[in-house]
Design a protein that fits this description.
Helix 8 links the parallel strand 6 (196-199) and strand 7 (219-222). The chain contains eleven helices and eight strands. 40% of the residues lie in helices and 13% in strands.
Length: 292
């Protein structure tokens, strides 16, 4: 039996529980939340969110998510909100992923640089191709990859099925094929020194993702967005074996709560040693020397 009160947690990908930062923005998205994540929206203060992370011994990297569809001018206020909140609760908020539209090239790049310089914690660049409609291998991302490689900072590239847009007409415009691991493979080839984290279980291309993880030494994995009980059998088999040093925990709070995820991870029968690797040791090793 795992004593979760003593387990440290490094959550590589969660969202905001506050009303200002909540990932789902429209009535249609909020109505779909119970169907997709088996949870309902409820908002907390910044202090309550920090207290929840602290209660579970968690350090978390947060993603606003919805900012990728905003203009650079509009997104700055949300970035300032994220950076200021991280500075207020540095013991539990390790940093932020910037989910930003790269097509306004210079303005977007300047904004990423601004946030990196202003942050008291970690700032990384994140790519959600299914929503943007641009594959991660597209040259539009090259300046951002070069910047992160130069700074020694990782990028997070989302793969596989996403709950975003699920159940909405036309899937909310999300193009699932752009979340295929082939694009991660291509980026890893062109930028062999870049630290790449693939985010989410990559179903229905889980075998492809495992192949990339085994083949490319600069690609790691975080598993937000799914309960582990729904992982494919191949992924469950590799977590304690060939991927035991590459898999890291992602919570997807507040869409999922830690209580549920911890119980589901334990129910799958992983050893204490493997759960410690997944929950914090692999992430701490990965981020050693990266965080300020």
């Amino acid at each position: 039996m795992i004593d979760w009160t003593q387990m440290r947690v490094f959550d590589l990908h969660s969202h905001w529980g506050t009303k200002r930062g909540y990932r789902l923005r429209t009535d249609a998205e909020l109505e779909q939340q119970p169907n997709t994540w088996k949870s309902t929206a409820s908002y907390v203060t910044e202090q309550e969110m920090a207290d929840y992370f602290r209660k579970h011994r968690a350090r978390v990297i947060l993603d606003l998510g919805f900012t990728k569809s905003m203009s650079i001018a509009d997104v700055r206020a949300f970035h300032d909100y994220a950076l200021e909140t991280q500075q207020k609760y540095p013991d539990v908020i390790a940093g932020n992923w910037l989910n930003i539209d790269p097509r306004d090239q210079q303005a977007a790049l300047d904004e990423v640089r601004r946030c990196m310089a202003a942050s008291a914690g970690f700032v990384g660049f994140m790519i959600s191709s299914g929503s943007l409609g641009v594959p991660a291998s597209d040259p539009v991302f090259d300046p951002f990859y070069k910047l992160c490689q130069e700074k020694g900072l990782p990028v997070l590239i989302l793969v596989g099925y996403t709950g975003s847009g699920a159940g909405l007409p036309g899937g909310g415009g999300v193009r699932l094929d752009l979340c295929h691991p082939r694009y991660v493979d291509d980026v890893a080839i062109r930028y062999p020194e870049l630290k790449i984290i693939a985010g989410r279980p990559a179903w229905p291309w889980q075998e492809d993702m495992i192949a990339v993880l085994l083949h490319k030494p600069n690609v790691w994995y975080e598993l937000h967005g799914w309960s582990p009980k729904h992982f494919t059998e191949s992924l469950k088999r590799e977590i304690p074996r060939r991927l035991k040093h590459k898999v890291m925990f992602g919570g997807d709070y507040p869409l999922f709560k830690y209580e549920r995820l911890f119980a589901d991870w334990e129910a799958d029968g992983y050893s204490q040693e493997i759960l410690e690797k997944v929950m914090y040791k692999n992430a701490e090793a990965f981020f050693a020397g990266i965080q300020k």
